[in-house]
Each structure stands twice: as C-alpha cells, then as structure tokens.
Amino acid sequence: MMTKQALRWISGLTVALAMGGSAQAIEVGGLKFDDGAKVAGKDLKLNGAGMRTRFGFKVYALVLYLPEKKDTPAGVLESSGPRRFSLGLLREVTGDELGQAFIAGITANTDKAERSKFVNQLAQFGEAFVNIPQGKKGDIITVDWVPDTGTVMTYNGKPLGDPMKDIAFYNAVLKIWLGEKPVDSTLKPQLLGKS
After folding, report:
1. Fewer Cβ neighbours under 10 Å: the N or C end of the chain?
2. Signal peptide location in the record (predicted)?
3. How far is 190 from 195, CA to CA, in rounded Å?
C-alpha cells in the first residue's frame, strides 16, 4: 500500500509531465507547432512565430527555428548552421498562388543584382509550388537550410523539389518576412521574438 507522501509525489510527477508535454507545442492561428526542431542532427530553438493576415483574413501561420535566438533580421540572416521555417496554411490556396506570393516577396526585398545570382533557384522554387494543386487549411510547408545540402522543402512531410544550394537564396526567402519591405509588418517582430 502506498503512503500519502508517495501518492503526492506521483501526483506531482503526473502534473509535471502533463505540463511538460503541453509546453512542447505552440499554437498559431489554431495550428500546433513544436517549440523546437531537429535539422541535420542539430537541435533548433523556436525563435518566433506569428500569423499572416490580409484584409482581416487569416492566411498562414509561420514559425522560425534557429540554433540560437536572434532578435534582429541581420542576426537571423547571419546565423550559422541549419535553420527552419514552417508555414501552416490557414485557408485554401493553389500552389500557383503560393509560388507567386513567395516570388513577389523575394522580388520586393532583393535587388536585381542579388536575384541574378540565384535566378535558377528562383525558377526551381517557383516550379516546386506547381506540384501543389490545391493547398488546404492545415497543410504545412517546411523549408530547411541544411549546410552542404542547401534549401530543402517539404509539403506535409513529402519532399517538394530538389535542394537549392545557395545560402543567399535561403536568406532571400527569409527576407519576405524579415526584409526592408516585409509582406506583413506585424509578422516581422513576432518572428524575431519581440511580441
């Protein structure tokens, strides 16, 4: 028979485990994301998360993972090692619409000379989205930077296109949200963990 002290200890352990389990996920726009990630064998920390809205409508949830927390765009872009961002759709959208939105965001935050360095990767990136006929609410696009491999994308866990080798390209994608003309000015500070 268990003593009262043993029962209290087991009860306390159960509560701690339950709380620990709930702290391992964050919710953004109704979608759950892990509070950390593992890319190329390295543990990444949640840097920030937020929701993109447009005309009052929820568009997508976005979470950014880095090896160490960074609170400036330059810090994120200069971060060494693997990185990840995950984008969860909050409405239906075609792959073509997604691709066009990404390319527009890259174009707004890079100059022509910069884009000319990774024009083939831009084309490859746009082509990858053509393989998504219709994105549904809750679908997840994950984009990793894997050193010595490149930018690796998955759609609901399945590979999306081939790796794109240039770190400058990965940074150009991040500038969609962290550049001088972010697609959503409220999302930028959230990804930097400032709100």
Report:
1. N
2. 1-25
3. 5
Q: Give the DSSP H/E element, type plus range, for residue 53.
A: strand 42-54
CA pair distance 41, 19, nearest whole angstrom? 26
Map out the domains of the chain with their CATH numbers: 25-191 (3.50.70.10)
In this structure, what token pair is assigned to residue 134? 């219709």
Backbone angles phi, psi at 104, to 5 degrees: -60, -40
pLDDT, tens digit (0-9, with 9 covering 90-100), for 124-155: 998 888 888 899 999 999 999 999 999 999 99
Within 13 Å of residue 101, how many CA atoms lie on the same side as its CB? 15
Q: pLDDT value at position 34?
A: 96
Contact 90, 64 (CB under 8 A): no
Please list, in sequence order, all residues whose beta carbon lies within 8 angstroms of the beta carbon of residue 186, skipping any fewer than 6 positions away: 50, 53
DSSP-assigned states of every residue in 122-184: HHHHHHHHHT-SEE-TT-EEEEEEETTTEEEEEETTEE-S--B--HHHHHHHHHHHHSSS-S-
